[in-house]
């Protein structure tokens, strides 16, 4: 592009601006200066400041990327979220939100490639899939305007309010520094010592101790952007927004005993489940929803919308569905894609912007820095899994593992090389380049730079109480029991009492149940920095109130042995498959069993290696002879006992009753015959059974 194609102006400080003319050509990708993420730059001469003479702002991702790359032009495992599984797919916009955002990916009907990674937080890359832990939910959108990374979790809140506390959180929850255990778990001294001294963690602890952190499948978790972001439309108007991913299969979790046994049964349970679902064409799908609101709504709330430890209940602002994501292709190479993918919350596109959430602001710096440390080069954006699918045009050069081969000597601007017959390179574009939404109306942003938090951030308990009052009695029992289990692992004498003292601000019954479970006296209530308030319950927060009674995406184990009725086996298998489920034949031998018709039915899994915890329900189809053999096998007894103990439906033939009796199975709504009643029961869990099978707090 020649010099004549650029307009040249002087800025307020006399600096030279060479830019694409106001009238274009804006369709020429090569003419526009971009970041490494393909986002067009509106001003390459000035960093983003708070006022004309104010300090430079940390959120200036154009400045940070440019300096960061320059710093590393001369020439290990993630610290958190190390264990992950991922897949390719696409996002399709299904609703017109052009009134809210000018982002091209939200244009109704637009399909955008994505790469989505799910992960545990605390464990290393070699840990197991099923510990009690938060799950990361990160989506990289390869948009026509550059990459957008929506980096969240399966829980809508976080432990801390300010990013400066993140190293303390991770140090506390990771393996203890002196002995390097426990791995991938929070049930130990240092985490609970820290958490008990940090009341702001209380709301997140309620979620972490709930069944949300022991999911049945990665295909059955919700995802949340956590922070309040901004949407910006073509007129420059801003709307606050929170992002939600809703799984098509609904949210479902295991029970704690089941989760522990899954660790022994299959270290890769979630990874295998995701891979096999995609491999067999059962593509996981989520709806993308938003909660959009204005400043007036934010000001009217009894909490601060910039506080990452708070939610906006869906009953207050319903989630508006604007698109869907389908994951339809497994990675070709785990290391090249799942391990090398680099998500950065700072990667946004025009039409999406940041808020002043202090936790988000810190993440904008941290992720870019950690990717350099992890991938060893400032050029990690050139790895195929990270590379934008739109043109990238800038003057950033060299550095370790440089993949491109720039021609000519234009590695700076402004320049006049094109006037001398050489290639001069791209230029900034004030018209289509990314512009940060000004946080103050008109004029320069005012205000002192302070290390403080807003007063509403001091309410650490109201939303924790909201969570407690919104879930079922069964879910409350799980929460209380989870606190009891975790705190029973703590050896520091003062910590359990201190944490229970905090819980008294959430609910007196919860605190008493945990204290009783630990065998300690109920401590005095902790002083609350701000008195909690009662909020209307939000049924949307409950797993059990919102479970989808469906066999779609579920796996049903059918236990057989020699002599099993062939017609019954075929009928149950057909019924499961017609309902959208997966029927898995289990027998004492992998070669299968000889059924009543004299034919051998090959098994999908051997009984000893296919425990009932890997299934969503079980059918036990035995003859008298087959049952007599299995009542002497510990694996069969445990298979049946665990299915009952994990609150699953059990369909059984009449001849299987001795095995049910020996396993301690008692008649209830979830123990059925092999007909339609079993298929109906198999679509749900039976939480009313739980007090019969285990002691809960």
Report what the structure shows.
Helices cover 26% and strands 15% of the residues. By secondary structure, it is of the alpha+beta class. Among the domains are: 84-382, Catalase HpII,  Chain A, domain 1, CATH 2.40.180; 551-693, Rossmann fold (3-Layer(aba) Sandwich). The strands form four sheets. Strands 3, 4, 5, 6, 7, 8, 9, 10, 11 and 12 form a ten-stranded antiparallel beta sheet that branches. It is globular, with a radius of gyration of 28 Å. The mean pLDDT is 93. It is an enzyme of class 1 (oxidoreductase). Pfam families: Catalase (PF00199), Catalase-rel (PF06628), Catalase_C (PF18011). Residues 1-25 have a biased composition (Basic and acidic residues).
Number of contiguous helices? 19
Proportion in helices? 25-40%
What is the name of the CATH topology of the domain at 84-382?
Catalase HpII,  Chain A, domain 1
What is the straight-line distance between the termini?
Answer: 72 Å
Biased composition (Basic and acidic residues): 1-25
Family: Belongs to the catalase family. HPII subfamily.
Enzyme class: oxidoreductase
Protein name: Catalase
Task: Give a quick precis of the structure.
This protein has 697 residues and is α+β, with helices and mostly antiparallel strands. It contains 19 helices and 20 strands. The longest helix has 18 residues, at 358-375.
């Amino acid at each position: 592009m020649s010099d004549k194609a650029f307009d040249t102006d002087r800025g307020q400080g006399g600096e030279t601006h060479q830019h694409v003319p106001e009238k274009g050509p804006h369709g020429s990708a090569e003419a526009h200066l971009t970041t490494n993420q393909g986002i067009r730059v509106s001003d390459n001469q000035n960093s983003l400041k708070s006022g004309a003479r104010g300090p430079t702002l940390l959120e200036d991702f154009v400045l940070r990327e440019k300096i960061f790359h320059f710093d590393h032009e001369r020439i290990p495992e993630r610290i958190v979220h190390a264990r992950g599984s991922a897949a390719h797919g696409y996002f399709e916009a299904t609703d017109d939100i052009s009134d809210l955002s000018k982002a091209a990916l939200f244009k109704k009907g637009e399909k955008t490639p994505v790469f989505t990674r799910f992960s545990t937080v605390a464990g290393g890359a070699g840990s197991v899939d099923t510990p009690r832990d938060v799950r990361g939910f990160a989506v990289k959108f390869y948009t026509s305007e550059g990459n957008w990374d929506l980096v969240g979790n399966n829980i809508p809140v976080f432990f801390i309010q300010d990013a400066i506390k993140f190293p303390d959180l991770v140090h506390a929850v990771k393996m203890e520094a002196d002995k390097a255990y426990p791995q991938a778990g929070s049930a130990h001294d240092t985490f609970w010592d820290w958490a008990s001294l940090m009341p702001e963690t209380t709301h997140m602890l309620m979620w972490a101790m709930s069944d949300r952190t022991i999911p049945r499948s990665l295909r059955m978790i919700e995802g949340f952007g956590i922070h309040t972001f901004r949407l910006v439309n073509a007129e420059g108007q801003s709307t606050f927004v929170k992002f939600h991913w809703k799984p098509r299969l609904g949210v479902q979790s295991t029970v704690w005993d089941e989760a522990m046994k899954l660790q022994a049964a299959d270290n890769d349970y979630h990874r295998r489940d995701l891979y096999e679902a995609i491999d067999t064409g059962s593509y996981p799908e989520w709806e993308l929803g938003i909660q959009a609101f204005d400043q007036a709504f934010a000001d009217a709330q009894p909490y601060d919308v910039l506080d990452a430890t708070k939610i906006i209940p869906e009953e207050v602002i319903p989630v508006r569905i604007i698109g869907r994501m389908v994951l339809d292709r497994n990675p070709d190479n785990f290391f090249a894609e799942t391990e090398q993918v680099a998500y950065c919350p700072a990667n946004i596109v025009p039409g999406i912007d940041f808020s002043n959430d202090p936790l988000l602001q810190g993440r904008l710096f941290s992720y870019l820095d950690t990717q350099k440390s992890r991938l060893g080069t400032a050029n990690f954006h050139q790895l195929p899994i990270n590379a934008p699918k739109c043109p990238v045009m800038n003057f950033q050069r060299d550095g370790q593992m440089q993949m491109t081969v720039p021609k000519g000597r234009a590695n700076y601007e402004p320049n006049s090389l094109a006037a001398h017959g050489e290639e001069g390179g791209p230029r900034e574009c004030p018209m289509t380049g990314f512009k940060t939404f000004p946080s103050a109306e008109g004029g320069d942003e005012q205000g002192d730079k302070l290390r403080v938090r807003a007063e509403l951030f001091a309410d650490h308990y109201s939303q924790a109480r909201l969570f407690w009052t919104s879930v079922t009695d069964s879910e409350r029992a799980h929460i209380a029991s989870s606190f009891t289990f975790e705190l029973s692992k703590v050896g520091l004498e003062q910590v359990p009492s201190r944490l229970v003292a905090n819980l008294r601000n959430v609910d007196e019954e919860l605190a008493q149940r945990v204290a009783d479970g630990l065998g300690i006296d109920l401590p005095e209530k902790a002083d609350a920095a701000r008195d909690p308030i009662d909020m209307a319950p939000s049924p949307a927060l409950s797993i059990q109130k919102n479970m989808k009674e469906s066999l779609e995406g579920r796996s049903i184990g059918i236990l057989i042995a020699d002599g099993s009725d062939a017609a019954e086996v075929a009928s149950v298998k057909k019924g499961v498959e017609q309902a959208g489920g997966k029927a898995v034949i289990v027998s004492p031998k992998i070669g299968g069993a000889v059924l009543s018709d004299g034919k051998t039915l090959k098994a999908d899994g051997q009984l000893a290696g296919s425990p009932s915890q890997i299934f969503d329900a079980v059918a036990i189809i035995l003859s008298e002879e087959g049952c007599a053999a299995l009542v002497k096998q510990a694996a069969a007894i445990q298979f049946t006992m665990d299915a009952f103990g994990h609150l699953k439906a059990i369909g059984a033939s009449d001849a299987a009753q001795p095995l049910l009796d020996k396993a301690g199975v008692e008649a209830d709504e979830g123990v059925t015959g092999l007909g339609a009643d079993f298929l109906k029961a198999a679509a749900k869990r039976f939480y009313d059974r739980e007090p019969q099978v285990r002691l809960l707090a």
